[in-house]
Amino acid sequence: MFKYSMTLAWSDRDECYVATIPEFPGLSAFGETPEEAANEARIAVEGFIETMLEDGEEVPAPQKVKTHSGQIRLRLPSSLHKKLAEEADREGVSLNTHMLYLLSNNYGAETATKACREEFRKLLQPKVISNIPFWE
After folding, report:
1. Do residues 49 and 88 both lie within one domain?
2. How many domains does the chain contain in total?
3. What is the pLDDT of residues 44-74, one digit of tens each?
4. Is the pLDDT score of 136 beyond 60?
5. Of 34, 32, 12, whose CA–CA distance to 20 is shortest?
6. What is the distance between the alpha carbons of residues 7 and 20, in angstroms, rounded to a whole number?
7. Which of 1, 41, 65, 115 lies at a CB distance of 3.0 to 4.6 Å from 19, suitable for a disulfide?
């Protein structure tokens, strides 16, 4: 039974489906249908494993589905704990709710900042026409 994870995607460049196996970087297989690409990937993995075993290399373990309970233990400096608790009291919410709010806002801001930086970087990439760079 095949236990490795697999990603299937259409490739405009190759005009076919491409299957990749994250546990085996660099491995990709192609097919006219998703099923064909997946089957080719399974065959390729078998070949990779056989070669790795012959060469005495360690075969990667299959990735497993991870579940998260939504609970974590977090140790804080007492001064930070105090500040957060005081802020939560001022807002009239629990410390847990206040920390969740702060984490969510920071995560969203960081994600937006990364996206903006990437778009800005793309805009600053010079374009070349007839060996003369120019910016759009």
Report:
1. no
2. 2
3. 999 999 999 999 999 999 998 888 888 888 8
4. no
5. 34
6. 5
7. 41
